Protein backbone atom coordinates (compact mmCIF):
# COMPACT_ATOMS: atom_id res chain seq x y z
CA UNK A 1 0.00 0.00 0.00
CA UNK A 2 1.37 3.41 -0.96
CA UNK A 3 2.21 5.83 1.81
CA UNK A 4 -0.15 8.78 2.01
CA UNK A 5 1.24 12.30 1.92
CA UNK A 6 0.31 14.27 5.05
CA UNK A 7 -0.94 17.86 4.80
CA UNK A 8 2.05 19.14 6.76
CA UNK A 9 4.52 17.38 4.48
CA UNK A 10 2.76 18.76 1.39
CA UNK A 11 2.92 22.27 2.88
CA UNK A 12 6.59 21.94 3.80
CA UNK A 13 7.45 20.58 0.37
CA UNK A 14 5.59 23.40 -1.41
CA UNK A 15 7.31 26.08 0.65
CA UNK A 16 10.72 24.44 0.14
CA UNK A 17 10.17 24.15 -3.60
CA UNK A 18 9.19 27.83 -3.85
CA UNK A 19 12.19 28.88 -1.76
CA UNK A 20 14.39 26.82 -4.11
CA UNK A 21 12.71 28.20 -7.23
CA UNK A 22 12.82 31.91 -6.42
CA UNK A 23 15.34 33.81 -4.28
CA UNK A 24 12.69 36.48 -3.64
CA UNK A 25 10.53 34.04 -1.65
CA UNK A 26 10.76 34.40 2.11
CA UNK A 27 8.84 32.54 4.82
CA UNK A 28 8.16 33.76 8.32
CA UNK A 29 5.78 33.47 11.25
CA UNK A 30 5.43 32.37 14.84
CA UNK A 31 7.67 29.36 15.51
CA UNK A 32 8.01 28.37 11.83
CA UNK A 33 11.81 28.25 12.11
CA UNK A 34 11.82 26.50 15.48
CA UNK A 35 13.28 23.00 15.72
CA UNK A 36 9.82 21.40 15.74
CA UNK A 37 8.75 23.44 12.71
CA UNK A 38 5.77 25.30 14.10
CA UNK A 39 2.73 24.33 16.09
CA UNK A 40 1.82 21.48 13.69
CA UNK A 41 5.41 20.48 12.81
CA UNK A 42 4.81 21.56 9.20
CA UNK A 43 8.08 23.37 8.56
CA UNK A 44 10.98 21.58 10.30
CA UNK A 45 14.34 21.96 8.62
CA UNK A 46 13.45 24.93 6.41
CA UNK A 47 15.40 27.46 8.49
CA UNK A 48 18.49 25.28 8.47
CA UNK A 49 18.20 24.64 4.74
CA UNK A 50 17.49 28.20 3.56
CA UNK A 51 19.04 30.33 6.31
CA UNK A 52 17.72 32.85 8.78
CA UNK A 53 17.36 35.65 6.22
CA UNK A 54 14.74 33.70 4.24
CA UNK A 55 13.05 31.58 6.94
CA UNK A 56 12.61 33.12 10.37
CA UNK A 57 10.52 33.29 13.50
CA UNK A 58 8.66 36.43 14.47
CA UNK A 59 7.15 37.84 17.63
CA UNK A 60 3.49 37.11 18.32
CA UNK A 61 1.94 40.07 16.50
CA UNK A 62 -0.28 39.14 13.60
CA UNK A 63 -0.73 42.79 12.55
CA UNK A 64 3.04 43.25 12.45
CA UNK A 65 3.43 40.06 10.40
CA UNK A 66 0.91 41.28 7.82
CA UNK A 67 2.47 44.74 7.69
CA UNK A 68 5.92 43.25 7.18
CA UNK A 69 4.61 40.94 4.46
CA UNK A 70 2.88 43.82 2.68
CA UNK A 71 6.03 45.96 2.81
CA UNK A 72 8.17 43.06 1.62
CA UNK A 73 5.80 42.29 -1.26
CA UNK A 74 5.62 45.85 -2.59
CA UNK A 75 9.41 46.10 -2.53
CA UNK A 76 10.02 42.99 -4.63
CA UNK A 77 9.97 40.03 -2.28
CA UNK A 78 7.42 37.21 -2.34
CA UNK A 79 6.53 36.57 1.30
CA UNK A 80 4.70 33.59 2.67
CA UNK A 81 3.69 34.18 6.26
CA UNK A 82 1.93 32.01 8.76
CA UNK A 83 -0.76 32.90 11.26
CA UNK A 84 -0.88 29.91 13.63
CA UNK A 85 -4.66 29.70 13.91
CA UNK A 86 -7.41 31.26 11.79
CA UNK A 87 -8.99 32.70 14.92
CA UNK A 88 -6.29 35.36 14.89
CA UNK A 89 -7.02 36.56 11.33
CA UNK A 90 -8.99 39.52 12.69
CA UNK A 91 -5.72 41.01 13.92
CA UNK A 92 -3.98 41.46 10.52
CA UNK A 93 -7.16 42.61 8.73
CA UNK A 94 -6.03 46.23 8.41
CA UNK A 95 -2.83 45.39 6.57
CA UNK A 96 -4.46 42.72 4.43
CA UNK A 97 -7.76 44.42 3.60
CA UNK A 98 -6.91 48.13 3.64
CA UNK A 99 -3.39 47.95 2.23
CA UNK A 100 -2.44 44.73 0.44
CA UNK A 101 -5.79 44.05 -1.23
CA UNK A 102 -6.16 47.60 -2.53
CA UNK A 103 -2.59 48.36 -3.57
CA UNK A 104 -2.98 46.85 -7.07
CA UNK A 105 -5.95 49.13 -7.71
CA UNK A 106 -4.51 52.33 -6.22
CA UNK A 107 -1.29 51.80 -8.20
CA UNK A 108 -3.28 51.89 -11.45
CA UNK A 109 -2.70 48.13 -11.74
CA UNK A 110 1.07 48.63 -11.88
CA UNK A 111 2.21 47.14 -8.54
CA UNK A 112 1.25 43.59 -7.57
CA UNK A 113 1.36 42.43 -3.96
CA UNK A 114 2.51 38.79 -4.20
CA UNK A 115 1.99 37.58 -0.66
CA UNK A 116 0.55 34.40 0.78
CA UNK A 117 -1.00 34.02 4.22
CA UNK A 118 -1.13 30.48 5.54
CA UNK A 119 -3.21 29.48 8.55
CA UNK A 120 -4.74 26.43 10.18
CA UNK A 121 -8.52 26.67 10.44
CA UNK A 122 -11.53 24.70 11.59
CA UNK A 123 -12.44 22.21 14.22
CA UNK A 124 -11.00 18.76 14.57
CA UNK A 125 -7.79 19.40 16.45
CA UNK A 126 -9.47 19.64 19.86
CA UNK A 127 -8.15 23.16 20.32
CA UNK A 128 -11.32 24.54 21.85
CA UNK A 129 -13.19 27.76 21.28
CA UNK A 130 -10.08 29.91 20.74
CA UNK A 131 -8.50 27.85 17.96
CA UNK A 132 -11.26 26.29 15.85
CA UNK A 133 -12.88 29.01 13.73
CA UNK A 134 -12.96 29.13 9.96
CA UNK A 135 -12.37 32.71 8.81
CA UNK A 136 -12.53 32.53 5.01
CA UNK A 137 -15.91 34.22 4.81
CA UNK A 138 -14.47 37.33 6.48
CA UNK A 139 -12.54 38.01 3.25
CA UNK A 140 -15.12 37.02 0.63
CA UNK A 141 -16.27 40.54 -0.22
CA UNK A 142 -12.80 42.06 -0.49
CA UNK A 143 -11.61 42.82 -4.05
CA UNK A 144 -7.99 41.81 -4.46
CA UNK A 145 -8.08 38.91 -1.99
CA UNK A 146 -8.14 35.29 -3.12
CA UNK A 147 -9.24 32.65 -0.62
CA UNK A 148 -8.35 29.00 -1.06
CA UNK A 149 -9.10 25.99 1.12
CA UNK A 150 -7.49 22.69 0.18
CA UNK A 151 -9.35 19.43 0.63
CA UNK A 152 -6.34 17.15 0.18
CA UNK A 153 -2.58 17.28 0.65
CA UNK A 154 -2.15 17.52 -3.14
CA UNK A 155 -4.50 20.52 -3.18
CA UNK A 156 -2.59 22.11 -0.31
CA UNK A 157 0.70 21.77 -2.17
CA UNK A 158 -0.64 22.97 -5.50
CA UNK A 159 -2.55 25.93 -4.09
CA UNK A 160 0.38 27.07 -1.96
CA UNK A 161 2.72 26.93 -4.96
Secondary structure elements and pairings:
Blueprint: H1 7-21, E1 25-29, H2 46-50, E2 55-57, H3 62-74, E3 78-85, H4 93-106, E4 116-120, H5 153-160
Parallel strand pairs: 1-2, 1-3, 3-4
Summarize the structure in short.
This protein is of the alpha/beta class and 161 residues long. It has helices at 7-21, 46-50, 62-74, 93-106, 153-160, and strands at 25-29, 55-57, 78-85, 116-120.
Q: What do these coordinates show?
A:
It contains five helices and four strands. Helix 4 links the parallel strand 3 and strand 4. It has a four-stranded parallel β-sheet, sandwiched between helices. The chain is α/β, with parallel strands linked by helices and 161 residues long.
| Mean model confidence by pLDDT | 91
Q: What string gives the helices and strands in order?
A: HEHEHEHEH
Q: Which structural class do the helices and strands define?
A: alpha/beta
Question: Which sequence of strands runs across the widest sheet?
Answer: 2-1-3-4
Amino acid sequence: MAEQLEFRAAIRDAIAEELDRDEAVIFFGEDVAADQGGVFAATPGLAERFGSERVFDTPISELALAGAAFGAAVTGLRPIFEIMFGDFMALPMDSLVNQAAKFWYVSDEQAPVPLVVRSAVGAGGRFGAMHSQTHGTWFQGIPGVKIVAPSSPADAKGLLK
